[in-house]
Amino acid sequence: MTPRRVLWLIIVITILAAFINVPSTMPFPQNARVFGQEINVAFFSPANLSQMFPIKLGLDLQGGTQLTLETKMDKINSTDRDTALEAARQVIERRVNLYGVSEAVVQSSTLGEQRRILVELPGVKDPQEAVNLVGRTAQLEFRESPATSSAQATPSAQASPSAEATSSALNDIFSYQPTGLTGADLKKASVTFGSSGTKTGPQVAIEFTEEGGKKFAEITKRNVGKPLAIFLDDVPLMWPPPTVQQEIIGGSGVITGSFTSQEAKNLSIQLNAGALPVPIEILEQRSIGATLGNQSVEKSLIAGAIGILAVMIFMVAYYGIYGLLADLALIIYTLLVLTVFRTGLFILPPVTLTLAGIAGFILSVGMAVDANILTFERIKDELRSGKSGRLALEDGFSRAWTSIRDSNISSLITASILIIFGTSVVRGFALTLAIGVMVSMFSAIVVTRTFLRLLPRFRR
To answer: Where in the chain are the domains?
Structure first.
């Protein structure tokens, strides 16, 4: 591909990146006239793009809730306690992920005989909401009236409890007996909207496993015309309980009640995530405000702007026109990195920025400039040896490439190790550093090289 075509490709990519990263407060027309036709261009407005591709902030920047949980291992064998701790961590992590909290942290720690779980939920401002999400056991259980459980051997067609017996059973929720059908038999739960009997609005559709479906069919068969109570953590989901209208074959059903949309969503999350294998106790719960985060972001942005400006001034002062081109490439590099953070290139999840992540990004800026410095010094050496401008440019890039490649690969290996074995803060730093390093290779080898190739001195 010729340098001019590469230049046009760089311009297109830069314009797209600029649109995604333009401040949402910038004024933008809602309509534009093209070939005499009025076209709505509000889709490309900064406010719309900011909503589509927001910059996600971590707990230290946007605030949220932090919980410290302690597991109760009294009834667990000492040899199985580490396994139980990991199982509890995984259950809580599944719940958090299903809830949709981005960049949440769920970590386990062992100190002597104490086994704790640390949960960080960015954006969750209500501590009680967080406690309900991660702390409930969510033990689903279907229970039947005592009259049914004491007469299970009687065919359902011949068993018809009197209205008085049914009324008596409904008045005492503790009299309902387990059927053996529990959340362990559940395959999937999801939120639906519709009507079931007299209930309308959000519902929770449940689907049982093959074995659970058989149990459900048997239970509904013997309880036709009778109430079947649904309990969650020993509390009835609705009262009076629903009445079974007919035998349900197929292993699926609907839980109805006076749910809000959020309550139905939380219930489905807890059922899908399963029950906690060990009891837990909330040792500490903290609401972290965004004030500190806003101050940190402002100071980080100021520090980053000062650092980038100082680097740009140095490059122009020392390398002249070459430094100016390197600065232009640095601006493009910054736009591209921010675009990757926001969009994940539409392949990976967007990056959630923390203070450590911002530090990794600022460090990668210096590494991006370092690649240009290596290239410029190599080109200078080639020019001193008497080579023509075009040959000096190509040989300079070729000889600088090995140093750039090796240093960046070393950085990527280190970042990979930190991502695999590090904690959440360290991972944030390593991830932004790795992204910055990879984009800097593109910036130095493609962008800066294309700019230099278009200079008259390097055309011949």
So the answer is: 64-137+278-288, 140-273, 291-458
